[in-house]
Each structure stands twice: as structure tokens, then as C-alpha cells.
Amino acid sequence: MTDLEISLDKEYAVIIKISAPIKEHWAKVKGLDYEQLLSSSSYKEKYRKEMLPWSEKMRNDDYGIFCRAAVDMFNAREKPIWIVSDIRRKTDIRWFKENFGAAIKTIKIIAGDDIRKSRGWVFEEGIDDQETECDLDDVEEWDLIITNHSTDEVDKAIEDMKQEIQECLTRNELKHAHH
């Protein structure tokens, strides 16, 4: 998502990370480095197993808690285009669809384990086999599926998404011009 984030006009679009409010809370409570928790570093991995049970308990009480918190944290309501970069659960999709209906477009980005390993990913039992990583594996209804095996594929997908975003903005501007 970094390439897409760099190429988006910040006036119109925002990248929302549902994990950000979790990591912000954890950083405050435990005195940790928030920026390091947001990264894909070994620093984050040290605390990930602790963050999961707490965040799961919070989600069980209110499945939309982190979706709402992330929308607020990133001031998303000020922008017409939102890209949620880290949806991991069916309930996250459910919350956005319940609250924003037909405006929601779902995009699944996939890469095979061999590709992921070549990029430094290492399977960790107790993390990568949990609901937080696997809950969307059986979802078949996506507006777009992107295979992230090569730079060319990703570049084309980003261009397609940018074009769709621009079309949405144009439709929105036309709608407001007629009122």
C-alpha cells in the first residue's frame, strides 16, 4: 500500500490502519515506541503475542471498536476516499459495509508463501495461523483481487485503483455541482 499511499492526493484520500489504535494504546500503556509498533519490524513482533489477546477481547465486546477508532484517529471523515490497509477480519468488512454501504469496495491482495518468504516473511506458529491472519481466507466475494508477485502486477493494480479513485472523485464533484 505504500506505493499507492505515495501517489494519492492527500487532499482527497487517507490511508486508515485499523491496527493503529491498538498499537497506540499498547505504546501508551507499556511505554513502547508507537512508530516501531506500526512497522513490520522485529520490535513489533516482540509485543504482538501480547497485543492479540487484549485486542481480541475488545473486539468480542464490540467488533467495530477499532474500525471506529481508526476512522477517528486518521480524521477520515474529512476525506472522500478512504483506503483501509489492514483489514483482517470479516467483522471489519461487516462494520464498514453496515456503516457505509455501497460506497465500500473490497480489494484482496494475495502473494504466495514462496514470494512472501523471499521478501523476508517467516511463518510463526501462534501468530500466522490465528484468526487475525486467516479469517478472510475463505471469503470469496471481492470487488478486486490483486496478485502481488511482481512489481509490474502491483504497478498496474495501483494505476487501476488510482483511475477508479479519480472516477469516484469526478462523479462526486459532478453530483455536488448539480445541487
UniProtKB/TrEMBL annotation:
**Annotated Gene Ontology MF terms?**
ATP binding; phosphomevalonate kinase activity
- In which broad location class does this protein mainly occur, judging by the first location in its UniProt entry? cytoplasm
Protein name as catalogued: Phosphomevalonate kinase
- Keywords for this protein: ATP-binding, Cholesterol biosynthesis, Cholesterol metabolism, Cytoplasm, Kinase, Lipid biosynthesis, Lipid metabolism, Nucleotide-binding, Steroid biosynthesis, Steroid metabolism, Sterol biosynthesis, Sterol metabolism, Transferase
Where, subcellularly, is it found?
A: Cytoplasm, Cytosol
Organism of provenance: Rhynocoris fuscipes
Pathway listed for it is: Isoprenoid biosynthesis; isopentenyl diphosphate biosynthesis via mevalonate pathway; isopentenyl diphosphate from (R)-mevalonate: step 2/3
Record EC number: 2.7.4.2
Taxonomically, the superkingdom here is Eukaryota
Q: Which InterPro entries match?
A: P-loop_NTPase (IPR027417), Pmev_kin_anim (IPR005919)
Any Pfam family the entry gives: P-mevalo_kinase
Question: Which GO CC annotations does the UniProt entry carry?
Answer: cytosol
Q: Give the GO biological process terms.
A: cholesterol biosynthetic process; isopentenyl diphosphate biosynthetic process, mevalonate pathway
